[in-house]
Amino acid sequence: MKRRLLLLISSALLLFGAVASWIASSYEAPAEAAKESKGERIADALAQDFERTKDLELGYPPTERLVDAFHQTVRRQQELAGTLDRGTIANPKFRERGPNNIGGRTRTILIDRNDP
């Protein structure tokens, strides 16, 4: 009985090892993309910004509406500044407590292995 159980367990482990080895050997790592030059990255960023800001009906970014959008932004910022008063949760006052060389609210220490 013990021999059968031992034979069954060793067969299962051998089969599992063979399948795992076959899967690992058939896996191909994704090829690394060629690094683009700085000029290509800048051109790609500008093209993405153009596509993001263009008007679909016009086919280009409408710069004539930019001034109106700027004035609307300034107006909303002034309205928001008028509604906030000092001491609310949006504008808290903090008092420094403790020595200056100890950071507060520290939860994690990150060690960069690439930094010598």
Short description:
The chain is mostly helical and 116 residues long.
Describe the structure.
It is a single chain. Helix content is 51%, strand content 0%. The protein has 116 residues and is mainly α.
What is the arithmetic mean of pLDDT? Answer: 81
Main beta sheet, described?
none
The residue fraction in helices comes out at 40-55%
Q: What is the number of E strands? A: 0
| Rg of Cα set | 31 Å
Kindly report the oligomeric state of this protein: single chain
Number of helices: 3
Overall, the morphology is extended
Order of helices and strands: HHH
The portion of residues forming beta strands comes to under 5%
Q: Uncertain regions: pLDDT < 50 for 5+ in a row?
A: none
Distance between the termini: 59 Å
Class of secondary structure makeup? mainly alpha
Annotate the secondary structure layout.
Elements: H1 2-26, H2 38-53, H3 66-83
List keywords for this structure.
116 residues, 3 helices, 51% helix, extended
